[in-house]
Amino acid sequence: MVSIPNQPTLLEGASVRLEPLQHSHCRALQDAVQDGQLWQVWCTIVPKPEGMAQEIERRLKLQAAGSMLPYVVRVADNTVVGMTTYMNIDRSVPRVEIGSTWYAASAQRTGVNTAAKTLLLTHAFESMGCHCVEFRTHFLNQKSRKAIERLGAKLDGILRSHTRMPDGSLRDTCVYSIVAAEWPAVKMHLLHGLKR
User: Fold this and answer.
1) Can you tell me whether residue 87 is helix, strand or coil?
2) Which domains does the chain have, with CATH numbers?
């Protein structure tokens, strides 16, 4: 029977490599997050360079607890450009959320996100047997919402006053998903986009 593993699996594509997160990635991630000073974007939660070691430790603890499979995103020239995860893992369904994702400014709108998400979605549906993959973002984060919609995910709804942001404000969370029955068409759409 197919199931969600307890450790992340190396995922490789033509232009992107998703490596299981390790403490040794800290310096490369500190460099990546400074490209665009991503922690200053008010509607996202991205670690500052000086908080990267703590963020890596947080994600690895969640992995040990069985609720997260964290990755770093590496591109063809061997540069680490960000982080992504399977999170809120529910092995009883099974289902996962793809989230806690950020990319260096220079990697945004380059196809890196589409390539990484294609690897993650393929692995979720075809190797882990997921029935549903979820995405969540801030209601006001139009850039993230458009990126999720470009993948082919559908808006399930909005959770009002759902999460407290680092600045103390309450976030309305948009919940999107792709279900297994939709995956073949979504996969064709993603692969076609990657060829262009």
Assistant:
1) strand
2) 11-195 (3.40.630.30)
Q: Which helix (H) or strand (E) holds 162?
A: strand 154-164
**b/e per residue, 108-140, with b = 16+ CB within 10 A?**
beeebbbbbbbbbbbbbbeebebebbbbbbbee
> From CA 62, how far away is CA 146, in angstroms rounded?
28
Summarised one tens digit per residue, pLDDT across range 86-114 is 999 999 999 999 999 999 999 998 889 99
Query: What single letter denotes the amino acid at residue 142?
Result: Q
pLDDT digits (tens, 9 = 90+) for 129-168: 999 999 999 999 999 999 999 999 999 999 999 999 988 9
CB 144 within 8 A of CB 135: no
CB 168, CB 177: distance < 8 Å: no
pTM beyond 0.85, yes or no: yes
Strand partners, 154: 177
Judge contact between 102 and 44, C-beta under 8 A: yes
